[in-house]
Amino acid sequence: MAHVDAVVVGAGPNGLTAAVVLAGAGLSVLVYESAAEVGGGARTQELTLPGFHHDPCSAVLPLGAGSPVFRALPLDRHGLEWVHPEVPLAHPFPGGSAAVLTRSPEETARSLGPDASRYLRLIGPFVDRWDDLSADVMRAPLAGLPRHPLLLARFGTRAGLPAGTLARLFRGERARGLVAGLAAHVIAPLGTPVTGGVALLFALAAHAVGWPFPRGGAGALSGALAGYLRELGGEIHTDHPVRSLDELPPARAYLLDLSPRDLAAVAGPRLPAGYLRRLDGHRRGPGVFKIDYALDSPVPWAAEECRRAGTVHVGPSLPEIGAALEAARRGREPRPPFLIVAQPSLFDPSRAPAGRHVLWVYGHVPYGWRGDLTEGIEGQIERFAPGFRERVLARTTAGPAELEARNPNNVGGDIAGGYSGGLRLLFRPTLTPVPYVTPNPAVFLCSSATPPGAGVHGMCGYHAAREALRRVFRK
Hints:
Elements lengths: L3 E6 L3 H12 L4 E4 L29 H4 L2 H5 L9 E2 L3 E7 L3 E5 L3 H6 L5 H8 L6 H8 L11 H11 L3 H5 L5 H11 L11 H15 L3 E2 L4 H13 L3 E3 L13 E6 L3 H8 L5 H8 L6 E9 L13 E6 L3 H12 L9 E4 L14 E9 L8 H11 L7 E7 L1 H7 L36 E3 L13 H13 L4
Parallel strand pairs: 1-2, 1-8, 2-7, 4-10, 8-14
Antiparallel strand pairs: 3-6, 4-5, 9-12, 9-13, 10-11, 11-12
Helix pairs in contact: 1-11, 1-17, 6-7, 7-10, 9-10
């Protein structure tokens, strides 16, 4: 077995990004992936009917389009093209109206009625500073000094607030609902500190880079990363599960795009018992229940803005969204659920046969939940799009167990790499300044269980690779 510089286990966006960074530094890199194709949480497959191309996990990628590392790589040369919906996000309300989040802060503010000026004051200091802010936010907070400390400190005074507190700075239900829906992406109760920062980050991403998706599906991003890695000389081996580091070629560094549970299983014999106990205390977050639809026509949203949107948040008010998140945390089915809906084929005809459409929907459920949320999801969509069920040609459902089977990192249906409320979003999977390193100087963790957490942005892999370059290869 030939010696290589680095081995990466897991070919999700973080694993592939880590491999690209290492190979770009002139190192020999091998990647091993248990599935038959690369991508992890960023793949595209025919899940319902022939010709309908669905994203089994991530679909709309604002943090991908705004990722500092992706923006620095020549991924367009390997087929990545971003599709920008006319309206990045719409948030409907009873009666057929909707708030919108668009590239224009002013247009977004106008949709919030009496809170227009408050919204512009909230985002004003940061709206033109995405490149500066994102690099400092999308990192481990104690891993070195930020590049723009004053900007980050100013952002932190707002970002540290619970989303519920941030939302109540507004007077109207439209702005409060919009903030709550943005914060719900972190899958934590709205009263949890730092969730306000998630809402702000997603809003700023919309103004800076939009909420786009890759043409052809999320798998196109993974394909571009894999293509660039091969161009740099890296090798990828799919259909190759790894149960132990002993099965791998000798290497100076091992970077694992795995859950903490699987990190312990694969590298446990090379890690001290105390660290393994700390990993065992890693808290899992709620799960999700996902449905992929094949439709014979677009969703008949009552609000016209939703018919022009790439993403729709379905849950009209701060109290309703908060109750759905709290129910999932407490082990109960949310009634009604809060939904995140993506409709990519409105803007990318390659995703479905002519005149047909795909729809991507998920709602939050308890960790490891075994129920069926189909009726709750479809009832909630019908509430804002009467006649939706009549458009359905086929559906494929996936609860927590199915999501974990598709991607072992989604343990119990947790797509966020662990509980993300409060400081758990910043210090994960253990409380340490540099979470990408382990007590074994040759073993690194590069999955979404590390900061900045969930999302297709590659930054967990980027930071882990940088640590490996510095500590192992002295680069």
